Structures are given as structure tokens and as C-alpha cells.
Amino acid sequence: MNKIFRINMSNLTTKCESVPEEWAGLGGRGLTSTIVAAEVPPRCHPLGPNNKLVFAPGLLTGTPAAQSGRLSAGAKSPLTGTIKESNAGGTAAQQLARMGIKAIIIEGAPTEDKWYRLHITMDGITFEAADSLVGKQNFAIIDEMIDTFGPKIGVLSIGVPGEMRMCAANISVKDPDQKIRSHGRGGLGAVMGSKKIKCITIDDTGASKVPIADPDKFRAAAKIFAKSLLDHPVSGEGLPTYGTNILINILNEAGGLPTKNFRYGQCEHHEKISGETMHDTIVERGGKHKHGCHAGCIIQCSQVYVDRAGGYITSGFEYETIWGLGANAMIEDLDDIAKCDNLMDDIGIDSIEGAVLLATAMEAGVIPWGDGKECQRVLRDEIGKGTPLGRILGNGTGMVGTAYGLVRVPVVKNQGIPAYDPRSVKGIGITYATSTMGADHTAGYTIATNILKVGGYVDPLTKDGQVELSRNLQIATAAVDSTGMCVFIAFPALDIPESFTALIDLLNATYGLDLTADDVTELGKKILKIEHDFNTAAGFSKQDDRLPEFFSYEPIPPHNAVWDFTDEEIDEFWDF
């Protein structure tokens, strides 16, 4: 990957640049965050012309290495006001990598009220009129692009909430089955909408393979790496069988399954929405209980969820979405939850923020608790059409809480808190508080060690060791996010020494380097510090690294735990 495309939406020009030496060793999150930190004024308006939207494949994306098909998107977030990186599967990352494109930097904003489609080929990038796509949602756009260019076309698009620059809007990515994966968190769809880009199409005709400096070493490392993924009980057995939704029953048992807008840690109807029930339902109806989000995925934690007649409802049906609608919003019917997931894919909003904001709207009395049909209507007819109510909801959980005068509003840096209660799983609370991205479980997934006992065990109900655990995982995750690898490679990497060694060997074999484990750790530290410095310059302080107050005075059953870290204890996170 030796090309960087810079797209100026103010004067509708493109420029192909060579890769600066200081960016040569970066990819994925490491590259998007470095570019945003270097080129975006920290205090700029996220939807103004000075913000930039950056796409970057990972360092290993496009190679035959398993799980390496992730694309990073970065910008200043309109939801959090912080730096943001969100990565997704789909086909775009591998296409861009094979085309030799290391990054795409989109800057400026059109002066005229016109919409555009960017078309990327081996000859460059062109601006195409896209006014006919305005008002369309993601599935219709993908279908139209397939009809125009054929099934191999890569597509990134936004729905109506992205056009309207709602802060929960995501960027959708076409997957190998012509469905959708998402750059979900942080409202990057609104940034794409602010650039008046409705859609990006990628035609990689003529692209060659990603060059590998030492093919023999690469093949040997790839074999060890893939074997470790399949040998580990989580990545090789649990996730392929039940998907990420295997966590419903596990978190319920641990008392860490946030229920009815974070009132309780256990949910009475957990069996109805569990991974085991979902698996049996899919098998009985003839769907797919294992499925990959990109070529080369061998974990296959995704699935295709179908209705009683075998018709498609949704895919990529994740634990966090099912938790948010099923336990936190009290919807008991898995079909209703699946239909909401499909609607969020179609209109293009983050399914975590979407689920949390719907539960918050129930707290406000806007939607009855557990009413899955009304949630579908609100998603389709309010948020999806941008009505006044839809615009309040579509701007995220924090906006809903403010609009309706609520106190129990589960956000950190204005981003909705995901599916693990920080009072009864304290390590993840440190991650929510200190992540440079706002509340983000993937930033430092302590559930692995606190609950699944991967990489050792730290008691989730005590404070001991949680700051160090979160710090180490956030450093490692920042590095993994730079490789283009799925975050679930962390399970074998934490337990099987050969797995982590093989990952480093893959990098060395691809680029002819001699990296060590310490080099990878230093890369993770450097990324976190770059992101933290950006946020500080944007006006954030230690006081923003805090959880909502209600966690400190509302004990959560069954453990009756509260959030009891002092400010000084939380601030120790940045002592590295």
C-alpha cells in the first residue's frame, strides 16, 4: 500500500500522494488517529469543513492472514467531541488494500447543496452526482449499485440519518453477501453527510495481490495463527456456535447484564433472548448460525437470522444489540429485536447507540417498556424520516436524556454505555471512563479476563487490578486495531503464546521487518497518547473520565454493587 488519496470536497479535486516516511509503519487505527491528530484542529466543529474523514485498511489487510479484513474510519466525532476510530468488516478494506491505497483523506465541504458519490478505480477517484440517491436508505443504495456495477462492487453509504447529520448515524459497508456491516460508533455517518457524500463505490478491477516480502515465513506464521484461533474454546467453539450472543446467559449469571436501563444486573427473560435460543431458532428455521463478515474470517461469529418462512431478517446479529433491546429495553421477542436490527442497518444508525437511546426513550415514557413493534415504528418512521422526535432520538442517548430531563442517562463522553454493567464488572468501567473514544467496550475488553477468565482472572467485583488490566488491554487493542485484525484474535493471543508470536511474524513477513513484542506494545502506547493529547487539546480533562453519577449511589442487584473508584484511582490509568 503506497498511495494516499486526498479528496477536497470544497473544490472537488483529488490528489494522489506518496506515503510520508513517518506514516509508513502505520495502518488502521494507528494511521487514522495519527492523521486526524496531525491535520484536524481539535476544537473545530465536527460537522464543519475543518474536520476530516479518514479511511485506512490495516497493516495486514488484503493478505491471506485469517481475520485481517477490517477497515478503520477516523474523524473528530460529532457524538463525543473526541477523536474517533471505528472499524468494520465487509469487502471495502481488502479491495482498497489490493489497490495499494493506504488511506483516503476526505476534507473540506461542498459550497453548493449537491450530493456526490465517490467512485474509486485503479485509475483514481471521480466525483459522480448522487442527488438521485438522496432520501434512500442503505439497502436500496446497495441494490442500486449492484444493479449498476455488478455484485463485486464495494460500497460504503449513509442512510437518511447520515444525510441529516444525526450523531447516531453510522457508515454502512457492503459485505460479501450484499448485506451490511457498520462503522458504528461515534456518528461518523454524520461526518460523511457533512461532506455531502452519500455513497462511495470501489471497483478493484485490475488490482493485484498485496505484496509479501517473505512468503514462506508468512505461510508458516499464518498456519500457526489460524490454528490458534480454532484451538481456543472462545474463538474456535463458543463464538462460531452461538455468536457473540453467547454472552447473554454468561453476563446474566454474573449479575452484569444491564436490565431496564441499568436498574438490574439480571433479566428474568434472559433465556428468550440468549445465544442458545438464537442458535436453535436459526437452525430450526434454516438460517445460518455461523457466517463471516469478510473473506478470510474463520471465527465466523456472525449469522443469518431468518423468519419462520426462512426469509431473511438480519445478519451480524450481535450480543450488544440483542442485550440493548432485549434486556435493557425489555423486548422479549427475538424476532422483534432482529427486525429492529435490520432497520438500524437500513437507516444507518449505530445499533449500540440505537438500542441504548431507545431504552432511554422508554425511561422518558416516549415508548412503552418492551414494545418491540413501537421501536420498529420509531426507527422506521421517526428516526428514519427525520421527524422532530426522530431528530432528538437520532442524536443519541445523551440528547434524549437532556430533552426529557432524565438522570439515569448511561453515557460517557456522551456515548451510550454498552452491554456490561460497570458496577458488577469493574474492569470494563475503567475502560468506559478512560477510553479516548467515550464508552467503548472494545477499547479494552476486560470481560475477557473479568468474566471469561481468558488471560488469567481478575475478580470483577473488586477494585484490585482493574486499572492495570484495562490499561494493558487498551494498549494491546490500539495495536491490534492497527493491523486490520478482528478484535476477537485477542482470545487466543492472551492464552496461547504461539498465537501472539505468529501475529508479529505475519507483520515481519509482510514488510520484511524485525519487530518484537515490545515494539507492538510501544505502538499501542503511542496511539493512545496521540488520541489522548488530541482530546486534551479539544478541551477534555480528567473530569471527563468519569462514569454517570447514578452508578455511585444506585446499588445493582444481585450483588448490590456500586461504582466505588475514586477520581485519583481512575486517573492512575494514564501513568505510563
UniProtKB/TrEMBL annotation:
Residues 1-206 form the Aldehyde ferredoxin oxidoreductase N-terminal domain. One of its GO terms (molecular function) is oxidoreductase activity, acting on the aldehyde or oxo group of donors, iron-sulfur protein as acceptor. InterPro entries: Ald_Fedxn_OxRdtase_dom2 (IPR013984), Ald_Fedxn_OxRdtase_dom3 (IPR013985), Ald_Fedxn_OxRdtase_N (IPR013983), Ald_Fedxn_OxRdtase_N_sf (IPR036503), OxRdtase_Ald_Fedxn_C (IPR001203), Tungsten_al_ferr_oxy-like_C (IPR036021), W-dependent_AOR (IPR051919). Its cofactor is [4Fe-4S] cluster; tungstopterin. The keyword Acyltransferase does not apply. Keywords: 4Fe-4S, Iron, Iron-sulfur, Metal-binding, Oxidoreductase. Pfam families: AFOR_C, AFOR_N. Gene3D superfamilies: Aldehyde Ferredoxin Oxidoreductase Protein, subunit A, domain 2, Aldehyde Ferredoxin Oxidoreductase Protein, subunit A, domain 3, Aldehyde ferredoxin oxidoreductase, N-terminal domain. It comes from the Bacteria. Belongs to the AOR/FOR family. This is Aldehyde:ferredoxin oxidoreductase, tungsten-containing. It comes from Syntrophotalea carbinolica (strain DSM 2380 / NBRC 103641 / GraBd1). The gene is aorA-1.
